[in-house]
From TrEMBL:
Domain of life per record: Bacteria
Origin species: Anaerofustis stercorihominis DSM 17244
InterPro entries, sorted: Desulfoferrodoxin_Fe-bd_dom, Desulfoferrodoxin_Fe-bd_dom_sf, Flavodoxin/NO_synth, Flavoprotein-like_sf, Metallo-B-lactamas, ODP_dom, RibonucZ/Hydroxyglut_hydro
Signal peptide as annotated in the record: none
The Flavodoxin-like domain, residue ranges: 258-398
Name listed for the protein in its UniProt record: Superoxide reductase
Homology family: In the N-terminal section; belongs to the zinc metallo-hydrolase group 3 family.
Pfam families: Desulfoferrodox, Flavodoxin_1, ODP
GO molecular function: FMN binding; iron ion binding; oxidoreductase activity, acting on NAD(P)H; superoxide reductase activity
PANTHER family: ANAEROBIC NITRIC OXIDE REDUCTASE FLAVORUBREDOXIN
Cross-referenced SMART domains: Lactamase_B
């Protein structure tokens, strides 16, 4: 029996849930399962947007047949070639032999790697900004490489203003009847799993996500249909998740608080972690998280490492190395490209404590992270000297929370126009389109009529920015592309497009402070206040 949902007059949800799955990608725990989303557009031409995992094949194929009835399937758009979304392509081709496959060249190459049917005779090859008219609807294709595979693209229905976003804006968890984010308490019940999904699946590709968000900002989006999780149709919800993606993809903490991850065998290092947490709490730090790395899957700790500003790692010395579970976590942290954090280290050992040095060696590759000077060494069990050291560490963590973490440089690609922000101390060339990117220099005074220097007001945690004292043009030939704020904890960005107002609002995390404000004019460049 089919299980379909009508989204608009012409669009249907034909995906399926998998609540039996234990590990997503055979690594990430998904206690609430996962949804595999697929969409079918019933226009003069019929279009299937992505398929599903083979574990959901029966329900999916039944759904497609039920919506099509006696009609043929004209096109299948392949936005993403990961097997949880492409597994049923060959089956669809066998059932609907006249179907054309809409894909970019990298996708075509991957189809040939995964399957053995003739793709060349049925492919409709697309590139950036190509379109496909299906009758009432026109689909536009936007490349989104490395979000999170190299072939990824997103599809925009210019008629209904719907973005089919591939893996972006998705989440872990099966859909429990409520298909839309505005039908659930998303921030309370789903945001943590959305963050865990983003940070672990896409998190290391922050610059690529930023490039895609910039492209998306030029679109008038009224609905987002991801390949996992709920559909976004409420304007406030869409703004909410775009703001979160801006924070996560720029490695800006959401909260000024502390995550403590510890590895302990006989409990002494656990006691140290608990005492540090209690000390921080007594000194006013809120929302502290403490994890036992032997019991907690790394994906949950990675998620909170993106959320909070300070990371503490406490490990025993094990066979003169880091405890294996802690070592695995640290490599995960390094692999996910986390930036703009304060990091503290605690080690324990009975005859040769050496974990701190080895933990630091793994984490030193992280960009723009500060190691807190006080490193705690415990010999077997806490004594007065190590208790004093823990108290000093707590003081330094709190002191660091008031210091600026990031100072930024802006780089622009002369080929595609992409703008990337990096910390000043990076020391390596910034590349795009195979070439070194140009560094942008910010102006601070402006005699032009437009008055580009941002006008800024701060009310509590709310920062309001308007471009100049005179309203700046927002036309195709002359407009503001983005407004960017630098804070002590990181930065936030608001992408703009012609027709928008040249202003933005930002919400700072508790304890964060505004450092500088930038805006970028497509004609007159970068400006700072």
């Amino acid at each position: 029996m089919e299980s379909i949902r009508k989204i608009t007059e012409d669009l249907y949800f034909v995906g399926a849930n998998d609540r039996r799955i234990a590990l997503f990608e055979n690594i990430y725990p998904v206690d609430s399962g996962v949804s595999y989303n697929s969409y079918l557009l019933m226009d003069e031409k019929t279009v299937l947007l992505d398929t599903v995992d083979k574990n959901a094949s029966s329900e999916f194929l039944t759904n497609v047949k039920a919506v099509l009835k006696d009609r043929n399937l004209d096109y299948i758009v392949v936005n993403h070639m990961e097997p949880d979304h492409c597994a049923m392509i060959e089956e669809i081709v066998e059932r609907y032999p006249d179907v054309k496959i809409v894909a970019n060249q990298k996708t075509v190459n991957m189809i040939k790697q995964f399957f053995n049917f003739d793709i060349d005779s049925r492919v409709v090859l697309v590139k950036e900004n190509d379109t496909l008219n299906t009758g009432k609807h026109t689909l536009a294709f936007v490349m989104a490489p490395m979000v999170h595979w190299p072939e990824v693209m997103v599809t925009y229905d210019t008629t209904d203003k719907i973005l089919f976003s591939a893996d972006a804006f998705g989440t872990f968890g099966a859909i429990d009847g409520n298909l839309y984010t505005d039908e659930v308490d998303y921030e309370k019940d789903w945001l943590d799993e959305n963050r865990r999904y983003f940070t672990n699946i896409v998190g290391k590709y922050g610059p690529q996500v930023q490039a895609t968000l910039k492209k998306a900002s030029a679109l008038d989006i009224e609905m987002i249909c991801p390949l996992h999780g709920h559909i976004w149709r409420d304007k406030k919800d869409i703004e909410f998740i775009l703001d979160k993606y801006n924070l996560w993809s720029t490695y800006t903490p959401e909260e000024k608080s502390v995550v403590i991850a510890y590895a302990s065998i006989y409990g002494h290092t656990e006691v140290a972690a608990n005492i540090l947490a209690n000390t921080l709490a007594d000194k006013g730090v809120k929302n502290i998280k403490v994890y036992d790395v032997s019991k907690t899957d790394p994906s949950y700790i990675i998620s909170d490492a993106f959320k909070y500003s300070t990371l503490v790692f406490a490990s025993i010395t094990y066979n003169n190395e880091i405890f294996p579970k802690m070592e695995a976590l640290l490599h995960e942290v390094a692999a996910h490209n986390i930036q703009n954090r304060d990091i503290a280290l605690i080690e324990n050992g009975s005859w040769g404590p050496s974990a701190n040095k080895k933990m630091k060696a793994i984490l030193e590759k992280l960009k723009n992270c500060n190691f807190i000077e006080e490193e705690v060494t415990i010999k077997s069990a806490l004594k007065e000297d190590s208790l004093n050291s823990l108290n000093n560490l707590a003081d330094q963590i709190i002191k660091k929370r008031g210091k600026k973490i990031m100072e930024a440089k802006f780089y622009r690609c002369n080929h595609c126009g992409n703008i990337i922000v990096f910390a000043k101390n990076q020391g390596v060339p910034v590349m795009c389109c195979g070439e070194k990117m140009e560094e942008l220099k910010a102006g601070t005074t402006d005699a032009a009529v437009e008055k580009h220097v941002p006008a800024v007001s701060v009310d509590g945690n709310k920062v309001s920015v308007q471009v100049g004292d005179v309203i700046h043009p927002m036309e195709e030939k002359h407009h503001i592309e983005f407004i960017w704020i630098e804070t002590k904890m990181g930065h936030q960005i608001k992408n703009l497009k012609p027709g928008d107002e040249p202003k933005a609002e930002f919400i700072l995390a508790d304890g964060d402070e505004l450092v500088a404000t930038y805006e970028y004019c497509n004609l007159h460049g970068l400006w700072k206040k």
